[in-house]
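in:
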């Protein structure tokens, strides 16, 4: 089985619609793909309706968190999307994305960059707006050559010239909320240092004690040495290890199935989940 547990659609900052995502996942030879848009479950219905035969969909989300001033992302799988407390927290984070993005546009304008909110809104296309949409606007204007080049201290990186903070969930609260909604939690790309500061291993140990299920090890932002270190940490802490592409369509260079999760780990994730279950494809529209 080929299992990719981290992919995004236009419901957040990917460029594939949810329907296109599942069709592309099947074309890439995947058996299982997880839809993990940022702080939203809006893509579920479209993805399920289009799910090709032979492909299983894992419903999830990537939750925006912060611990001791360091931003981090928590992948949540197979939770009940209507559970009130987790739903309210996701909406709080998502609703804060718009004023944050508008704040970044204002700071860019102060620097003489003619980005407009209408441009960013068009790029987001109704999805959960985020920094990648602002970065795409900078690419369109020729300010930077690629989206990745916008995530520097000169521009959008944490602490950068135009960075604006948003509401982010305490990861221990995220673990509690996801567990209460019957879901499973995996710390996304925990050692992706090129994105900025990373969470110390001592904090990961505290999260493991609080119920964290796993860490994402095989990821494009982790080199071989880092992956080996994370595997050792996961073994020490009794955590599951996953592999995923973190696919965003054409917005990033990664491709579906670039990294995958061991079928035994996937089986354990599905065994632990009680809020929702994987959806087998029967031939979508």
């Amino acid at each position: 089985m080929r299992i990719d547990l981290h992919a995004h659609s236009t419901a957040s900052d990917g460029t594939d619609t949810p329907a296109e995502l599942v069709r592309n996942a099947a074309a890439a030879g995947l058996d299982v793909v997880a839809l993990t848009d940022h702080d939203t479950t809006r893509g579920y219905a479209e993805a399920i309706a289009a799910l090709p035969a032979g492909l299983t969909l894992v419903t999830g989300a990537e939750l925006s968190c912060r611990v001791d001033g360091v931003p981090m992302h928590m992948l949540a799988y197979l939770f009940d999307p209507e559970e009130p407390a987790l739903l309210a927290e996701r909406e709080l984070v998502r609703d804060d994305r718009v004023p944050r993005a508008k704040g970044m546009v204002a700071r860019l304008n102060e620097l003489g960059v003619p980005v407009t909110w209408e441009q960013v809104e068009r790029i987001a296309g109704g999805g959960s707006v985020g920094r990648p949409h602002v970065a795409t606007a900078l690419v369109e204007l020729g300010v930077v050559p690629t989206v990745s080049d916008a995530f520097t201290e000169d521009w959008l990186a944490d602490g950068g010239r135009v960075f604006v903070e948003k509401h982010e969930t305490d990861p221990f609260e995220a673990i509690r909320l996801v567990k209460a909604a019957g879901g499973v939690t995996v710390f996304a790309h925990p050692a992706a240092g090129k994105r900025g500061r990373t969470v110390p291993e001592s904090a990961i140990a505290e999260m493991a004690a609080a119920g964290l299920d796993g860490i994402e090890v095989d990821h494009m932002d982790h080199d071989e040495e880092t992956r080996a270190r994370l595997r050792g940490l996961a073994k020490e802490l009794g955590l599951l290890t996953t592999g995923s592409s973190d696919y965003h369509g054409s917005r990033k260079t990664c491709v579906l199935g670039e990294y995958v999760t061991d079928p035994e780990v996937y089986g354990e994730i599905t065994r632990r989940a009680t809020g929702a279950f994987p959806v087998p494809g029967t031939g979508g529209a």
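note: The chain has ten helices and eight strands.
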